[in-house]
Every structure is written in C-alpha cells, then in structure tokens.
Design a protein that fits this description.
The complex is a heterodimer of chains A (about 120) and B (about 110). Chain A has about 120 residues and is mainly β. Chain A has no helices and 11 strands. Helix content of chain A is about 0%, strand content about 50%. The model of chain A has no long low-confidence stretch (mean pLDDT about 90). Chain B has about 110 residues and is an all-beta fold. Chain B is about 0% helix and about 55% strand. The mean pLDDT of chain B is about 90. Classes of the chains: A mainly beta (about 120), B mainly beta (about 110). The interface between A and B is medium-sized, with 21 and 21 residues.
C-alpha cells in the first residue's frame, strides 16, 4: 500500500519555466490537498479538491493551477515559475471533506528550486 | 478565524528527559486538534488527535497531549525522550479548515 505518492521528488527550474507536480493516492480518499512548506511558516494550503472535477483555492493560490484528473490523481502546475515559488510541496489526502477531514495523509514532498 | 501558536521554535532536551512542546490555538468553532511529526526529508505523520472525546489523548511512540479549553492549549508531552524523537513537530487546528502552526524543532542530545 503506497499511500500518497508524489513526483518528482526534486526539481530545479529557471524563472519562467513551467512544470507539473503529480500526486496520486491509492486509499480511495475523496479529498486531496496541495500545501507548500516554507521555513518558520508551517504548511500553507495552495488548493483543495473535495472530489473529482472540483477544486477550491486555498490560502496561497496565486501562480498555481490544479487539476483533479480522477479520484486518485491531483496535479499542481506552475505555468511560469518564479523564485518565490522555491519551496517544498506536499500533497495530502483525507477520507472526508475539509471541515471534518479526520486524518490527513501526506506524501513525502517535492523540493522545488527556482533560479 | 483560526490560528495556532507554537511557543518555541526550537526545543533541546537530553535523551531520557521529559519533552514538552507547547501549542495554543484560537478558533471560532469547536475545534479538532492534531499533532503531526516530520522527520528530515519526510512527509508528515499523525502523532495524535483530539476530537471532543477524552481531553487526554495518547498517541504513537509514547507521546500524549492534553486539551485544556480554558487555556486554549494542546501541549504535547513525552516522559522520556529518545534519539529517534528528533524531528519537527506541528500543532494543527481544524474548525472549518486545517491551520498549521509554524513548527517546533526538537533536538535530542545524547
């Protein structure tokens, strides 16, 4: 049982380049999340998806787009990367919705550096 | 509105001594509260959660936390630290959304 799988684990981009972070979960969870982690700031929600085909903005959505391809997969796209998007990105999933999610299950993170 | 304050950015203890990581929260709702642990270069793992049942919550690896509504606190404790406890710890409140604290880095000295 893999849980939540993210790819790639590491990526270096130049300013203006685009890329997509992939996330897949095999726990049949309804809700999926993308967070970014920056030193001293905890995790901040970028986007949230309650089900296939639905997405909601979180606390820091600017510069990102997401796609909930199916129940398993939730991708995060940077259309034109900026140095301020250098961060560690975490995908997570939960059985229930955001207001009462129970436990969040996390992937191992994707470390992105934008030069 | 919800917020989480972790009162110490870094805590250092000796192996075998008690651990106390402090967390205070504010929430307009009756919150659920969580502690997550993050080991270096790893994702976050749930340590324990409070969801309005018993106020003293026991988690994995000997950790426990006590919910004190009057003090709006949810401090994490462990009687005896082990080297493997060295990690980053996050207090999380969920009333309407998940809100993460900034984290406390725990160092365990031999």
């Amino acid at each position: 049982n893999a849980g939540v799988t993210q790819t790639p684990k590491f990526q270096v981009l130049k300013t203006g380049q685009s890329m997509t972070l992939q996330c897949a979960q095999d726990m049949n969870h309804n809700s999926m999340y993308w967070y970014r982690q920056d030193p001293g700031m905890g995790l901040r929600l970028i986007y949230y998806s309650a089900s296939e085909g639905t997405t909601d903005k979180g606390e820091v959505p600017n510069g990102y787009n997401v796609s909930r391809l199916n129940k398993r997969e939730f991708s995060l796209r940077l259309e034109s990367a900026a140095p301020s998007q250098t961060s560690v990105y975490f995908c997570a999933s939960s059985v229930r919705g955001r207001a009462n999610p129970g436990e969040l299950f996390f992937g191992e993170g994707s470390r992105l550096t934008v030069l | 509105a919800q917020s989480v304050t972790q009162l110490d950015s870094h805590v250092s203890v000796s192996e075998g001594t008690p651990v106390l990581l402090r967390c205070n929260y504010s929430s307009s709702y009756s919150p659920s509260l969580f502690w997550y642990v993050q080991h270096p270069n790893k994702g976050l793992q749930l340590l324990l959660k409070y969801t309005s049942a018993a106020t003293l919550v026991k988690g994995i690896n000997g950790f426990e936390a006590e919910f004190k509504k009057s003090e709006t606190s949810f401090h994490l404790t462990k009687p005896s630290a082990h080297m493997s406890d060295a990690a980053e710890y996050f207090c999380v409140v969920n009333g309407q959304n998940f809100v993460f604290g900034p984290g406390t880095r725990l160092s365990v000295l031999p």
